[in-house]
Prior knowledge:
Elements: E1 4-8, E2 28-40, E3 46-56, E4 60-61, E5 64-71, E6 74-81, E7 85-86, E8 92-95, E9 103-105, E10 107-116, E11 123-126, E12 142-151, E13 154-162, E14 167-174, E15 180-187, E16 195-196, E17 205-209, E18 232-236, E19 243-244, E20 261-264, E21 269-271, E22 274-283, E23 290-298, E24 306-310, H1 320-323, E25 337-344, E26 348-355, E27 359-366
Antiparallel strand pairs: 1-27, 2-3, 3-10, 4-5, 5-6, 7-8, 8-9, 10-11, 12-13, 13-14, 14-15, 16-17, 17-18, 18-19, 20-22, 21-22, 22-23, 23-24, 25-26, 26-27
Amino acid sequence: MSDDQLIFRPDDVDLTRSPLRRGIAEPTFVLGAFNPGMTRLPSGNLLLMVRVAEALSQPIDGDHVRAIRWEDGTYVLDRYPVDQVDMTDPRQFAIRGAAHRILALTSLSWLLPVELSPDGAKIVAVYYDKAIEPAASWQDYGVEDARISRIGDRWYMTTCSVSAERHSTTLHISDNGLDYRLAGIILDHQNKDMLFFEGLVDGRFMALTRPLGEVYFAYPSNSPFVGGPSINFATSPDSLHWKPLEAPGIRARKASTSAMKVGGGTPPILTDQGWLTLYHGVERRDAVGIYRSFWALFDAKDPTKILRIEDDAAILEADPSLTAPIAHQMYLPTPVVFSTGIVDQGDHYLVASGEADLACRMTRIAKERFR
């Protein structure tokens, strides 16, 4: 394969096999097929767990806007008066006049397993029969952004489950890397970027988390850091019950161009230098911001010891030349690359990312870049 390519795009999704056909008769389209979790299967092939954001072609019906929602095994449309919502963001709308910031979605996300060749250059199979879709009321607005870690003989996949009840992190477990069973909620708060380390640390599971909130507190004026979301550490005896660790993790730094916020990217993998992870930093621009990928290295025995953070020059940036052939499908005004998986390929790493919240990008990065 080339060093950089789009491997899966919106037009690669067959919507006639979408789970939304169980209830939604109105025309839909793929808003994005992106942010894929990635792992290696026992066969040596790779698996992408692609987030498919499926949207209504005509979300506005007369004087109402419609939202897609899962309900008791089927899918329904809720209606809201247009004059009572803010539709500035094409992915969602905000309900005006509420006591809190309340959103609804004109799309719903589900996860599609896509098998690739060992080098990540070709699609081998697409498994609609193994798609991950909502299965409970606490997922009624969809399942998003898988991250997959193989630990021992099992695969652990974290996802973000979105609902009116809660915005939580959920866990799926597989014994073969392809067929996943839902293990339930493991973080009962808004945390879109929980990543399991690919291996136990002192006999325990370890993860990066990134809790979100409405309020953050200021650092002293002489601090190198900016207040806001940060990447933290947590540990668990069983992958289900998690304790946050007191040691600070990765925080947005004033001197970085991408200091609006930081968040998790690829599950940490063990290298001869320590635990390697790519994470995202965001530069303030328009409503969404510019997303870039940076990298960090944690100590092999005690990952709370951060050996290195590279947040000056991005390891990956959005590449408009990749999305030029499908530019007519783009809906975000700013450049976004969101890295979600990494595998060791010998003399290089293969990184899976979401490009422009639109398609799945595969990038080969020489190991020398991380030294």
